[in-house]
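Progress against Task 2.4 (sequence-to-structure conversion) is shown through the following example record, which the project officer requested during the mid-term review.
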Amino acid sequence: MARVCFQLQVVPELIDEYVERHRAVWPTMLRAIEASGRRNYSLFLRSDGLLIGYYEVDDDEAAQRALAENPDTAEWEAAAAKYFVALGGDRPDQAAPQLREVFNLEDQLAAL
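Structure tokens generated for the chain above:
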């Protein structure tokens, strides 16, 4: 299992709209994320627009492919693209830099 953490920047003027949009994510998008194999998925947003995402997955490359090939996710991502400071790539989530994990409590406790 991989733990994946990523970072994006929400356009400051659109933070409230971004938060509102995530109060009720489309059911088709929720099912697509689940079907891709991602689980324990959360987004954390700082007041200046720094967005940190986290999820767990068995095969992140397969999950990325499944989401990229799903028309429901393409529609969601196209509508959501305006919220992010541009990073390049077709979709903001594909260009989001991943953060390196440097500590995990459960891993270290298991090693004791």
